[in-house]
Amino acid sequence: MLRTAEAYWQGLRDGREVYWRGQRVEDVTAHPALARGARHTALDFHLAEDPAHRSLMVADGPDGSHSRYFHIPRTPADLRRRNELIETVTRLGNSFVPLVKEIGTDAIFAVMIVAPAVDRPAGTSYARRVEAFYRHCRDRDLTMAVAQTDVKGDRSLRPHQQAQPDTYVHVVERRSDGIVVRGAKAHTTNAVYADEIIVLPTRALGREDADYAVAFAVPAGTKGVRYLASPRGFSATSAFDNPLSSQYQIVESLTIFEDVFVPMERVFLLGEWQAAGLLAKTFVEFHRFTAVSYKPPLLELLIGAAALLADYNGIASAGHVRDKLVQLVMYLETVRGLTHAAAAECAMKEGLAVPNVVYTNAAKYHFAAHYHDAVRAVQDIAGGLTVTGPVEDDWNAPETRAAMERYLVGAGVDAETRLRAMNLVRDLTASDLGGYLEVLAIHAEGSLEAQKLTVLMDTDLEPYKAYARRLAGISSDGGR
């Protein structure tokens, strides 16, 4: 069943406990700020109803028609199609990815791989539960958020060593029909707009951390689940001054579990500490592929804004400007090319196609490591008026608008055209949203160090060492 946007919004009116700036929000679809995000995340449903995009958004199969996000990747072509889906939807969302089905299906695919590996030696039934949950979400066309990153407390200590044990989500009671969990997860993207919350371990664990080795799913409105929604990045209200952040909303939240009961059928890992790290790693193998799939539209927008202002400022032929533009294009295409390679060179695990770990992490690292350089190049081309120029109130006042129209003209364009391009650059690079995007580039989907460690873990250095030994005339045992 494919839902309409209205049916999706109705599902969000379930009494979930959301707080915005310390105040309880009764309905996220009607809240002055949060409603923007609800409208944007409904994009997936609008596009699925649009004949022009149906073939991209909807997968038809023996089980009927369902959102393509739920299509289980079995081949490189499936991964490439998923990449195309995420990139295209983000572009149609004006560089903002909805993120209400992408990350959730990343998590489901990861648990589908890990659950059988846990079941075989332990005799558990996690794979059956995951399959049932997958069908529940797919057949009802539900949205999902993933709560993985624990707040962690003292990062030098393991979970069981924390002075405050609730800094990691953990099991506090086991019952015959389910478990009770407590703790908090940070950075849960768009959880306030999701139907289901999927909880995964955040790291590898030891035997003493068995109570923290837990994975499960609960409906977003479950009693005891609270969301402290962050207003960061989207405080603007003027469409003239901030054409993006005044119109769209992505919400990160601190998601709190206060003695939440989880039925056993919705538990996908319970105490099997040996599998916690594997599940965390398998999730990010999909999640980082999603991440580098939705980065290109943002980079395309940076390139387009820089090129426009190069024209409007009359500097398009300057050597340093041409150099910056070509560097921006190569930055974009390196990220995109590595992402395509990750799909083409995928690995097979439990019948699922998993994006190539090295290529995926190389793409994510390249994006994060060079994002601030890209911002600097765009700001350099745009000029200082991006932050010192007049604002919408000046434009709307007759006594100041006349001066702006006279003095702020560009090369072959009027003042309004040039100002609107400047405002786009400011919103992308020097506003509340701009700061949000710069931190997001570094930390979202794992830090720079996380990508480097992952690449090293998944790279076999022995063939390279053997090659070097052969050319140096060194035998395999170190002699000559």
Q: Mind explaining what this structure looks like?
A:
The chain has 480 residues and is an alpha+beta fold. 49% of the residues lie in helices and 15% in strands. The protein has helices at 5-12, 34-41, 43-49, 54-57, 76-92, 102-122, 126-140, 276-294, 296-312, 319-344, 357-382, 385-388, 392-396, 398-407, 415-429, 432-443, 448-457, 462-472, and strands at residues 17-20, 23-25, 58-61, 64-67, 144-147, 170-174, 178-189, 196-199, 214-219, 225-229, 252-263, 267-270, 347-349, 352-354. Helix 5 (76-92) packs across helix 10 (319-344) and helix 10 (319-344) packs antiparallel against helix 11 (357-382). The radius of gyration is 24 Å and the shape is globular. The mean pLDDT is 96.
CATH topology of the largest domain: Butyryl-CoA Dehydrogenase, subunit A, domain 2
Under the CATH scheme, the architecture of the largest domain is: Beta Barrel
Helicity range: 40-55%
Low-confidence stretches: none
The Cα radius of gyration reads: 24 Å
Strand content bin: 15-25%
Overall pLDDT confidence? 96
The top level CATH class name of the largest domain: Mainly Beta
Number of helices: 18
What is the molecular shape? globular
| Count of the domains | 2
Q: Which class of secondary structure composition applies to the elements? A: alpha+beta
Total strands: the figure is: 14
Supply the CATH superfamily name of the largest domain.
Answer: Butyryl-CoA Dehydrogenase, subunit A, domain 2
Biggest sheet, spatial arrangement of strands = 2-1-10-11-7-6
